[in-house]
Design a protein that fits this description.
Number of helices: 0
Largest sheet: 6 strands, mixed
Distance between the termini: 39 Å
Radius of gyration: 13 Å
């Protein structure tokens, strides 16, 4: 098990910024061995890949709709992954989830390929 806890969500006006954090428990093993991902799910929609980061931080894929606005990063010394979200739009409103899986190389972009998930955190962007 890799307990994950998201924080940093909330309500923001369009054009604003938020930074999400995903903290992994040290009891879950070596954080630097895990690839991480951010997903989001809006009401009535499927869970969507947003961004990911490989174990070393070398690979950082994004979904097209957030490229140039969102930045994913990680600090392995703090067992934490981040998602900096700038120029937020109402369509970014969703519950955001972080996910982890033991992937020494590369990043997975499909939800069912991840074994460990956080509880989710609400992000609401008002127009």
């Amino acid at each position: 098990q890799v307990p994950l806890v998201e924080s940093g969500g909330g309500l923001v006006q369009a054009g604003g910024s938020l930074r999400l954090s995903c903290a992994a428990s040290a009891s879950g093993g070596t954080f630097s061995n895990y690839a991480m991902g951010w997903f989001r799910q809006a009401p009535g929609k499927e869970r969507q890949f947003v961004a990911g980061i490989s174990a070393t931080g070398r690979y950082t894929p994004y979904t097209d709709s957030v490229k140039g606005r969102f930045t994913v990063s990680r600090d392995n010394s703090k067992n934490t992954m981040y998602l900096q979200m700038n120029n937020l739009k109402p369509e970014d409103t969703a519950i955001y989830y972080c996910a982890a899986d033991f992937v020494p190389v590369g990043v997975r972009e499909v939800a069912h390929q991840y074994n460990y998930w956080g509880q989710g955190i609400q992000v609401t962007v008002s127009s």
